[in-house]
Design brief:
The structure holds 2 protein chains of 2 kinds.
Chain A: H1 2-41, E1 44-46, E2 52-56, H2 59-65, E3 66-68, E4 75-77, H3 79-111, H4 115-130, H5 133-144, H6 149-156, H7 170-194, H8 198-206, H9 211-239, H10 243-249, H11 256-264, H12 270-301
Antiparallel strand pairs in A: 1-2, 3-4
Helix pairs in contact in A: 2-12, 3-7, 3-9, 4-7, 5-7, 5-10, 7-9, 7-10, 8-9, 9-12, 11-12
Chain B: H1 14-35, H2 52-59, H3 61-93, H4 101-113, H5 116-134, H6 140-164, H7 167-175, H8 180-209, H9 212-217, H10 225-231, H11 239-264
Helix pairs in contact in B: 2-11, 3-6, 3-8, 4-6, 6-8, 7-8, 8-11
The chains are: A mainly alpha, B mainly alpha.
Chain lengths: 303, 267
């Protein structure tokens, strides 16, 4: 009898292995496996014409934030890299804040519609999100470039006589990223607002709270896990953004993604590019751990 | 309760901001579409309706080649991703829980967590090694890379459907001496089709829209439609780009709406 069940278990294990193998093979070949090679490459010496030479070196990791003076050999901070790191983090944070300021009221608006219309409103939020990121970035570019809609309208109205330079500034990247990632804020905030118990809000008013107090002391604490989740969901892709800063920053306002690309393009320093990629990955992983904890708290608070 | 018409749900200014958001979400896209029909060469000054930019995009050999390549890659990648995802979803829903299940789950979702630029760099390095070793520089690198990041999008709806299914039908099939394979083909698969279709449509769109990974993995002369458009940035922008964008947008919206309809139909 136990022989039979052992046999059954063995067969189940084999079947499971066979069923999982295609997905695992593809992912190991084209997602997880290559990451290990990136780690190896970050410890090699850059080749003269790109790629690498197979000799061990930790220079790439040094160069992530430090630089060595060619003549004196003195170490100092690599200002160019730090500027890019700082810009990436600053713009990602600002995007998350902007997305919160716009997304929170929008999620609240949707959550207070009649139940049968809420799905439709959410669909309206999600449709742009599922369309091509490059095209949405293009759309923003066409809006704010010097010959674009905004400047043309303002000049036609006689408000300005010189186009305002908006494209290729940090402002353009901020606008673009907020536009592109706003749905990632609205989605989790709406999810926690939908379960909001409005009798608590009513209780607040019964106790003579103002609208602002109810919002700050009742509604916000209840949906905070959703806000935390949304902020991280916006922050993470902004940090690794490549297309939006390339199109709207025009190579003048680099973010981390563009700095990494430069190492594999013009600057021909693959190990440094590898080290920068892994640094980005590490920051993102830390943010995702916070995300999982925020989701976990929300799950616990529903019990 | 609300004798003075006091609405407890109202928050000052929230409706205004929400309406602003909805307008801002669609206005840039609508303008982009409108100017694709512009008779002039500007993307800001309207000079009358015309199809000329659609005609010029259609006649552009580079656009034709890129479109063809995009479609081949998206079809192949979504088919591979969906087939692999069906098998994996069966393994995670139709066998008893086992240790290592979390690992599989983490691996499947990896493309959603790791920034695209990091995966792109990793693939650039890895495929460079393979290209040197084998000398092969064809489309399969792109197809496999696309299949990998499509897997989570194909896996999610299929797994959800398998979990929501009534198991008694499959048990009845097994009781009537159907082999597991036969039960899958005759009982599970017919119920699973909407999810398979939904997953493959979503994968198709995700693959069609990809820029970053394609930009890093492609060999010379392997532009897809999005990387072609990105390459056009340095030149003078004409509404031709808008015309191509409009067609891509239409495909995405059709596919995504189809996805939503199919994944809702189970309720």
């Amino acid at each position: 009898m136990s022989d039979l069940s052992a046999n059954f278990q063995r067969r189940e294990r084999r079947l499971r292995f066979l069923l999982l193998s295609p997905v695992m093979l593809i992912l190991l070949f084209a997602a997880s496996g290559p990451l290990i090679i990136v780690l190896i490459y970050s410890f090699l010496t850059p080749g003269a014409y790109g790629n690498v030479e197979w000799s061990f070196s930790i220079d790439a990791w040094f160069n992530v934030i430090l630089k060595r003076d060619i003549f004196t050999g003195e170490l100092s901070f690599a200002d160019a890299h730090l500027t890019v790191f700082w810009r990436s983090i600053k713009l990602s944070l600002m995007t998350a804040i902007l997305a919160f300021l716009l997304g929170f009221p929008t999620a609240y608006f949707i959550a207070t519609r009649p139940r049968r219309y809420r799905d439709v409103w959410m669909l309206l939020i999600m449709i742009p999100f599922w369309t091509n990121l490059l095209i949405r970035t293009f759309a923003i570019m066409e809006l704010i470039r010097n010959e674009g809609t905004v400047n043309t309208l303002l000049m036609a109205a006689g408000i300005i006589d010189q186009p305002i330079q908006m494209l290729y500034t940090e402002f353009a990247i901020l606008m673009g990223m907020a536009y592109v990632y706003l749905p990632l804020m609205i989605l989790p905030v709406y999810a926690s607002m939908e379960r909001l118990d409005f009798s608590l809000v009513e209780a607040g008013y019964d106790l003579y709270a103002t609208r602002w107090q109810v919002l700050r002391k009742v509604i916000f604490p209840l949906v905070k896990p959703g806000v935390v989740a949304g902020s991280i969901l916006v922050f993470v892709p902004c940090l690794g953004a490549y297309v939006t800063p390339r199109v709207l920053g025009g190579g003048r306002q680099l973010m981390l993604g563009n700095l990494i690309e430069l190492q594999f393009g013009q600057l021909r320093n693959w190990p440094l590019g590898a080290a920068l990629s892994l640094t980005l990955l590490a920051i993102v992983m830390v943010a995702l751990i916070f995300y999982v904890r925020a989701i976990g708290r929300e799950g616990a608070s529903n019990v | 309760m609300s004798e003075r018409g006091f609405d407890i749900r109202r928050q000052t200014g929230f409706n205004t901001i929400a309406v602003f958001c909805f307008v801002m979400l669609y206005l840039p896209i609508i303008l982009l579409v409108v100017y694709s029909f512009n008779a002039g060469t500007s993307i800001a000054i309207w000079e009358g309706f015309s199809w000329r930019w659609y005609v010029s995009a259609w006649d552009n050999e580079k656009v034709q080649a890129a479109t063809f390549r995009s479609l081949i890659i998206a079809c192949a990648a979504s088919m591979i991703a969906t087939s692999a995802a069906v098998l994996a979803a069966l393994a995670t829903t139709r066998t008893r829980p086992w240790r290592g299940q979390m690992l599989v789950f983490a691996l499947v979702n990896q493309p959603l967590m790791v920034p695209e630029i990091v995966t792109a760099v990793a693939l650039l390095i890895f495929f460079a090694i393979i290209k040197v070793a084998t000398g092969y520089t064809g489309l399969w690198y792109l197809i496999v890379a696309h299949a990998a990041f499509c897997i989570p999008f194909a896996y999610m709806p299929i797994r959800a459907r398998l979990q929501g299914m009534d198991l008694s039908l499959e048990q009845a099939g097994a009781d009537l001496y159907g082999t597991p394979f036969k039960v899958f083909c005759r009982v599970t698969l017919p119920q699973l089709w909407p999810a398979i279709l939904a997953g493959s449509m979503l994968s198709f769109v995700i693959s069609l829209d990809d820029v970053v990974i394609t930009e890093f993995v492609k060999s010379a002369g392997q532009d897809t439609l999005p990387t072609y458009m990105l390459g056009q940035l340095r030149r003078v922008i004409t509404p031709e780009i808008n015309a191509i964008s409009t067609v891509l947008l239409a495909i995405s919206i059709l596919m995504v709406s189809g996805f939503f309809l199919l994944s809702r139909s189970k309720k």
